[in-house]
Amino acid sequence: MKRPLLLQLALTLAFTVLGLAVMGYHPGVEDDAVYLSAIQYDLNPALYQHDSAFFKIQLQATLFDNSMAWFVEATKISVYWAELFWQFLSLFAILWACRAIAARLFTHPLAEWAAVAMVSAMFTLPVAGTALTIADQYLHPRILATALILLAVDRILAGSRFVPMLLLTAALLFHPIMAVFGLSFCAILSLLLWEPAYEWICYTLRTPRGQLALATPLGWIFEPPSSSWYAALHTRHYFFLTEWTWYEWLGALAPILLFTLLWSFAHRFGQKLLARVALAVTAFAVFQFLVAIIILSTPALVRLTPLQPMRFLHLVYLFLALLAGGLIGEHLLRFHILRWVSFLVVINTAMYAGQRSLFPASPHFEVPGDTWSNPWLQAFGWVRHNTPQNAFFAIDPDYLAANGEDYHSFRALAERSQLADAIKDASVSSQVPELAPYWQKQVEAQSGLQNFKLAEFERLHYDFGINWVLVYYPAPAGLECRWHNRLLAVCAIPQTVPNTGIPRQSSFAPASNFVQNRGKPHRRHHRRHRHLH
Prior knowledge:
It is a single chain. The protein has helices at 3-23, 32-43, 53-56, 64-75, 79-105, 111-121, 141-157, 162-174, 176-192, 195-205, 227-233, 246-268, 272-297, 313-333, 337-358, 375-386, 410-414, 424-431, 436-446, 454-464, 511-517; strands at 392-395, 417-418, 468-472, 480-484, 488-492. By secondary structure, it is mainly alpha-helical. A 5-stranded mixed β-sheet has the order 2-1-3-5-4, with helices on one face. A hairpin with a 3-residue loop joins strand 4 and strand 5. The chain starts with a helix and ends in a 16-residue tail after the last helix.
């Protein structure tokens, strides 16, 4: 192995460690409520006998959970360490691809490392009003797809055609929607790398009436949704452009202007490849933005809303960080050590402070097997080790937003079934309309649970089969409490409900029923309320 390659590997590894240290690691939060639960279910089907539809249906279009389950079984390591390993590997792959792309776009030898440093620090940069960050603080299939897309972009810039298609196909298997954005960008970039097309577009953009062509994707789309589905949909303000704030609109439109200016600057000074990449990002953003406007403003296409077409901004922001870092390195940092130190300290300290404010009650790096001081995590851990695998819990439906909870999923971390919550399961129900009536029924049944008496808990037991509850300590009288800490208590519901001979109401149909009754699934996901503004 040549010395420069060893140096590239070592520096990329160092920036990966720095980026992970800044962003932190929090398994089981936000979207990991879905993904971690699905992996655990694949490994142990005895889990989640009452609520698997809240994660299995949404994951029909991806191989992520099956692949992770296979990796865990093959390596014999725990799910949590497996996720951490692939989180690190995915971040490394993203930075490796960013370095390779920057090396093709900038002439100064340190510009590529400034680009890597910027992306590394900005992993958790919020993406306008989309409720996304460039990378999540836990393993998400989007991060795997992002790495594959960036590697494909590098291969396209190198002149390859077959390898990018393989990489984009792999991305499609892990995260279909992210892969579609990647395919769109790579198609536009490939077109602009063709000299006649680039020259024609440059000429057209200089004419008063010059404009880019527009196309829009074209029947489950037209099926009338239920009122329950609308209720789930409206728990997410970022689905609706009319509800975006001015600064979210600024975050969506400003990058388009910046990339347009960068294209003009690079074209004027003869930086052909940089100009074409900047123009590709501009064209991609304009095209996808117009598609999003059409989808989100057409009532007949309301069923496409959960696909969240504005999330194309994820790739735009990633290239914004990459190119901004490269330009800073080429024109400002160069070989000045003091400037480099100041640059790294400022960007990493600012992002680290932001992350600590988002998870104030949790360790910055939640290492598997650690002893938690967070009372919620203590309760989840006790439930995981001391209750039957078929236990079915009721919990305050708004518990994810409780002070100090930090959006950790009970289902994913306690590894037990629960009645639907009002936050994360609402997002899943917006993706899977068939779940919406069950979601609404279960959330309404738990409304005000923190004030329930024994009779209300017995009603939950009779109506839904609930046999355990997680409540605030001290627990209501009459419950058989098995454990508590300073905040929470884990209690069983006394088995005193009379058998009337009337069949219990069905709280949930099996996930397999939904799978059989659905057409081709559509899927998206939601980030925690801290990103919902």
